[in-house]
Amino acid sequence: MQADPIVKSVMIVLALASLACWTIIIEKLLRFRMIRRQTHAFETAARNGERLTAEASNLAGRIVAAGYGAWRDQDPSESRMERRERIERAMRLALSYDMRHLQTGLPFLATVGSAAPFIGLLGTVWGIMNSFSAIAASQDTSLSVVAPGIAEALFATAIGLVAAIPAVIAYNKLTTDLGRLQQSFIGGIMMLGDHLARDRNHYLRAEAAE
User: Fold this and answer.
1) Are 164 and 172 in contact, with CB atoms under 8 Å apart?
2) Per-residue pLDDT for 204 more than 50?
């Protein structure tokens, strides 16, 4: 509490950044867990040729809705391969739109992970400068003169590391998880696109049932 105002400002900024990072991390972990269940159900249903519900309330449902929308817009002159490519393209566009929303917050984690140590270093340098100033003012190199500036300098460094380390680890994990989720959805999209392109009657009955 008795630290220099500059060092104290650095500590406050790093503490707020750490709090924001943990908020993003917890929110992403919970959301990714929910989407992972949707991915598994979507991929399993697409593999087995089961009827999928086009619900706008979840990611898998929006992908299915995009696929059904492209399937309805059929052109008698197009081949099955062309129809499949068009249906898959519509579903991939829906997927990419949601993927961009899921990436929200990840750049902030990357920024904090790379910048927090340097922000903490600013506080460290300022605290050491205060220690040298105290030595010059008192003409004394005892521990009681040097310790306050060194202590606040080291504490600023520690807060920078506390903010940066979880941010870097979480960014790497969440980015990897997001890539895996996207690949799983793409696999389901390919299977669903194939079913929609070649098995018209099955999905026509499914649409009628809805």
Assistant:
1) no
2) no
